[in-house]
Amino acid sequence: MSAAVRAFSSIKGAAAHRASFNKIASRAYASQAKSLKERFAELIPEKQAEVKEFRKAYGSKALGEVTVDQAYGGMRGIKGLIWEGSVLDPEEGIRFRGLTIPECQQKLPKAHDGGEPLPEGLYWLLLTGEVPTAEQVKGVSAEWAARSAIPSFVEELIDRCPKTLHPMSQFSLAINALQHESHFAKAYAEGIHKSNYWDPIFEDTMDLIAKLPNIAGRIYRNVYKDGKVASIDMDKDYSHNLAKVLGFSDNSEFVDLMRLYLTIHSDHEGGNVSAHTTHLVGSALSDPYLSFAAGLNGLAGPLHGLANQEVLRWTLKLKDTIGIDASDEQITKYLWDTLNSGQVVPGYGHAVLRKTDPRYTAQREFALKHLPDDPLFGLVSKLYHIIPGVLTEHGKTKNPWPNVDAHSGVLLQYYGLVEQDFYTVLFGVSRGIGVLAQICWDRALGMPLERPKSYSTAYLKKMFGAN
């Protein structure tokens, strides 16, 4: 079959898939007052009016000053972005639309067979600011399942990747290829009015989020297993289907871990690399596929999403060096040897937080409930009680407490997902929920092209009269 015929078949398949989705979605929403898209459409004019009024009254107010150190220091702490879904407080931690992680665990709907919140509910919350009903979340689950198929040419593209190509590179490659399906790119080419940008953007984000498990599952099964990918269950939730395509859906605890993992890793306000990059690229009116692929390339860095596997590797190296049952004294000596050699202790400290990361705490509580006697979790618990004191005495870490990366690896290891290079792909599936919700609001509010001003060192020296 020629490439042209394959592409045509893919387009026909996508059209048939959308027609099928419309029928399924109609049935799913028959018992609801409003779908997510309908509720989002209602909120847009209200939010537009709120922003317009606020800018009129306070637009000239300063959010703070920018120092030379901040300009050289990666713009750390500069207040200059709007991000609706979440705000990270140094002392409180992350709040999703005002709700802490424990509050989300309490208030968001859960599956009948699990104790953790469904990420579908978090997406509704991030997009609308409202806690959804169980029926509304069920509708989102059905919609994502109905949209989950990926075109045959994307499947072929993933299948042709060598196993030695990093899973994150394959993930980004596949999402870039999915841009072929973009509703927004097509609508923009046809001359859509900017006031309606949000509509095809919404469709793209729903399609993209829905397809992430199938992409991730195909990469995982190709690289680490037999290449066979299970089909999506149309009557199951998003996390169940992610676990299924990975090959772990028979373990109900792993499925519930995925619900927790996808929820807590989804959003962390707008300044982190993956969120900011997605927003920045989207500000050029790049469609959600191109924008999110760019964000994933940032997530793949060792100072961002790759850190979770780096922490696990460091922990396993500690275990192999001094033993999984090492004493507090042995661990303390190992930590000081690490610090005195000029290396860092990964998984501890955070650019913004000044307390234990609530995402770490949520995972620790999951472990205490489901795997309290696991030896590796026991070692991680020891580190939790020892490392902050050592780092405080060392005196060079502003926040000696653990972040989310210090715990996620041990949970995945326990349930048999031991392939560390794949961990950032899971992070990417989750992060799509947060950054794509924000892209919908970026276009609904008409956020402009992002273009901060830059200076050279020579110009700064002249500005301050430095020699």
Helix-strand blueprint:
Blueprint: H1 3-28, H2 36-58, H3 68-72, E1 86-89, E2 93-96, E3 99-100, H4 101-107, H5 119-128, H6 134-146, H7 152-160, H8 167-178, H9 183-189, H10 198-224, H11 238-246, H12 252-264, H13 273-283, H14 288-299, H15 307-322, H16 328-340, H17 358-370, H18 375-394, H19 405-414, H20 423-444, H21 457-463
GO molecular function, one term: acyltransferase activity, acyl groups converted into alkyl on transfer
Organism: Lichtheimia corymbifera JMRC:FSU:9682
Keywords: Transferase
Describe the 3D structure.
Helix content is 61%, strand content 2%. Strand 2 and strand 3 form a beta hairpin. The protein has two domains: 296 residues, Orthogonal Bundle (Citrate Synthase, domain 1), CATH 1.10.580; 109 residues, Orthogonal Bundle (Cytochrome p450-Terp, domain 2), CATH 1.10.230.10. 45% of the residues are buried. It is globular and about 65 Å long. Helix 11 packs across helix 12. A three-stranded antiparallel sheet has the order 1-2-3. The N terminus is likely disordered. It has 467 residues and is mainly alpha-helical.
Features:
Cytochrome p450-Terp, domain 2, globular, Citrate_synthase_euk, transferase, Citrate_synth-like_sm_a-sub, disordered N terminus, Citrate_synth-like_lrg_a-sub, Citrate synthase, Citrate Synthase, domain 1, 467 residues
